């Protein structure tokens, strides 16, 4: 019997590595828990409440009656297992299922079935008995006929055509999901026409250029609306469905463009000062900037800065003049985005970001008064919309790791997950006719690579630390024995350690949700500092190499980010917004005293190996590096050192290593302290990850670690309700 258990566990490993489960770390955790508890005959652990606590990190007093996460995720698990079975993989020797009505796993030996069929018994539809490690009757499997398996497989693959169904506007728990736009490349920002017959969206043409397309739902006909050199993004239909507004990224700044449909002329309404992407998204093209029309069709709502010294708030833009009227004025560096007007036109919902990946849903009256916070999850939010009746809001949240759709009452309260049978659902757009919606199903993989540097040239790169999700922010200890990095391989972003050769990977933090990064080592290699957001705003924490609970170093109702340890170990540099505009400060490790050392607008400090110079970036569009003395004096700009992305640079013993990203590659450079010239090291066919320090050089200058985007794809799907009542069965 022990052999059967090992066969089941090996099959479980194969399922976890399959295409159906490759980006579903939490789903694999769910399946593994169910299988192991079944094998151990722990019936008491296979109850909904216990699964919620053990698998989905719910608190000990969690009430499954108010949160149907286990039931919803169980449906997704069953669908994935059916899809895996339908794939016909030769690796499947044991079929694992979780029948409805409970959470007990069942196992069918397919190897025996195939052997019987090979002996001429195919016509008789023979099924082998289930594998039973023990004869405990509480989990004994009933044999699944082969014909039923075929029917289930066919059912999973059926495409159910779209149609308008006059069902209730409430979001139910019985639904179907079908593909809408599944081209190669990236498709996002769906906008549904008022009559529900067309969807406008963005497609990159498989790397060609970001343009606006319109697809007819009834006929499937696709029209390309824009075809210029600039990226055209964030389409929005006018209330009468005769016009389409969008943003165009141009050399002179983003333009608000309106075009009549079908086939009308374009008109540039105005330029915007802010594209709305500072905090919200690692993809600047699908960031939190978004357009919404006023009910009378005379104004647009969007994110902009009404002046250079103010934060990014929501504005009303008059279509006849381009003039802007401020609606919100968020404090400090906060940013408001994703405006959505309620169906009755009386309220505006939007997202307010207070830090990278930390946002909340708010509502207000249409005149900007009566501001009300709806969520308190401190998570990244990628899109929201009102339900058809205006009583609920649906938004995409990363509170449990990958983006998922959640529903919440317009007045606030507890939110509920809205299953979409996908690993990452974002950018919801809800139709105003029928009970259906569009959303974006995205998949992105970041991994950490290592490339040697020999005689001023790059060697052959190798994938160094990888998983099916996001791995970034590498940092190598001065003694080169340990690499710290950020990974979401446990379900949410956490700090992990690995040996200097990439072996012995271990988890060091357990925040369970918020974005974190910017890891830096103490000069003695005994501790790290990093920024994290467990309370919303970014704060700086210290963690010894032996592990334990991170200790706050700098924390408050402001941003404290991107720490860097001085070479003598006596100070920690960081940038902070505690006086308003970002500025680099220095904090004494022994006394805790801190004070600003660089001018306002300075960011991301690093110290030279001889401790005589501080390097940093400026808070401006011209992202050249700057230098100063350790006390902030003698500030000089290095015009020929311009990393892109702006955080992708690292100080080495003899100079600065930095990268400049192209459309599908990155060029690596070295700025020499000796001759003060920039030398090209080489070009790699990879794009570096965004929004995080993605590049670091080893202390001996022989290796560069960098985080690259190995894969990215997004498609648009439709989610249609098939019933108005919640499904009660598990």
CATH homology superfamily of the largest domain: TolB, C-terminal domain
Which stretches are low in confidence, meaning pLDDT under 50 for 5 or more residues running? 114-172, 276-281, 724-729
CATH topology of the largest domain: Neuraminidase
Strand proportion: 35-45%
Q: Which word captures the global form?
A: globular
Number of helices: 6
- Structural class of the helix and strand makeup? mainly beta
Under the CATH scheme, the architecture of the largest domain is 6 Propeller
What is the number of E strands? 50
Please report the first level of CATH classification, the CATH class of the largest domain: Mainly Beta
Number of domains: 3
Radius of gyration using CA atoms only: 27 Å
Percent range for helical residues? 10-25%
Distance between the termini: 30 Å
Describe the structure.
With 730 residues, this protein is mainly β. It has three domains: 2-157, no CATH class; 175-434, TolB, C-terminal domain (Neuraminidase, 6 Propeller), CATH 2.120.10.30; 444-713, Neuraminidase (6 Propeller). Helix 1 runs antiparallel to helix 2 and helix 4 packs across helix 6. The longest helix is centred in the N-terminal third of the chain and has 18 residues, at 69-86.
Task: Fill in the keyword field for this structure.
single chain; 730 residues; mainly beta; Neuraminidase; eight-stranded antiparallel β-sheet; 6 helices; globular; disordered C terminus
